[in-house]
Amino acid sequence: MSVQADSGVVAGITVDSTPVLAPRRRRSTLGIFRNRKAVIGLCILGFFTLIAIIGPYIAPYDPSATSPDSLQPPSPEHWLGTTITGQDIYSQLLVGTRGVMVVGFLAGFLATIISVIVGVTAGFLGGTSDEVLSLVSNVFLVIPALPLIIIIAGLLPSAGGVTIALVIALTGWAWGSRILRAQTLSLRKRDFVEAARANGEPLWRIIFFEIMPNLTAIIASGFIGTVIFAILSEVTLAFIGVTSISTWNWGTVLFWAQSSQALVLGAWWWFVPAGLCIAAVGTSLTLINFGIDEFVNPRLRSTAANAGVLRKKKIRARIGFTPVYREGEPAASRTIPAASRTTKEGVNA
Fold this sequence. Notes:
Elements (H helix, E strand, L loop, with lengths): L6 E4 L2 E4 L19 H23 L30 H37 L1 H15 L3 H11 L5 H11 L2 H14 L3 H8 L4 H9 L4 H24 L10 H10 L2 H4 L2 H29 L1 H8 L1 H6 L25 H8 L4
Antiparallel strand pairs: 1-2
Helix pairs in contact: 1-2, 1-12, 2-3, 2-5, 2-6, 2-9, 3-6, 4-5, 5-9, 7-8, 9-10, 9-12, 10-12, 12-13
């Protein structure tokens, strides 16, 4: 019997001996768009981003224009009702979305850049550079952001959203830099980084192509957290009347609703839509954060990929916990609290 490289004959049967290699599945950078949570969050955030861009152009009324229609509930003429002076609330929300989104994303973008530069540089270089940058971050870590913003807004009556965003970014980067520094310290002595050094790769290439990809989840989480904080700060400052009450945003709508006793008057349409908008943007950013975490975390990614199989076995996958299947027991008992699972089965949840 002759043996060939690609095929052979055994008992009159031609057997193909070419090794069959299973196709390798590569993780694409666009794989995050297959995550349901991330897609839902991006859709909601995209909707509000679109409203921020075109809102002032599609508003049916001037948000500051008064009319005889005082405290009218939602109707075809005024989709979200009117204020006590007859102003159209729907137009106020459309126009005010831009200010909220600009402050949130501008503050998040600037704070993330500062935290990445300071944190990664301190963690990777070490020595004197680490001590100096850590001292600077510790100083900014204890500066209270909200009182400082109130003081600056009081000293600068014409301070707009950009000024508030700059103050939030200046006081909101220190916590993220501390986390990035700690993670960089754990990465700089890994084998793949040492191999890059041994190959003579330049410092910038090691940082951007070896260190930074492993910090994606932390950077994204810090960015989203700063955006949420900036949006809530902007709304809070407008609600308490620190910023200009003539500039429309969701906090300004709530300020006039509170000043005019909308809750006592039963005008729910005055403050509920603005509150729902704030909650929707916060939920969208949180879903995006969950999606990014599941995309970059191998354990969460494998759980999400096998979610269909687990559902068929009537096992409920819980984030951060190892699913346990016990054959012959009711389905209701297959998901148990982590504490009892550890003590009764000896399985580390």
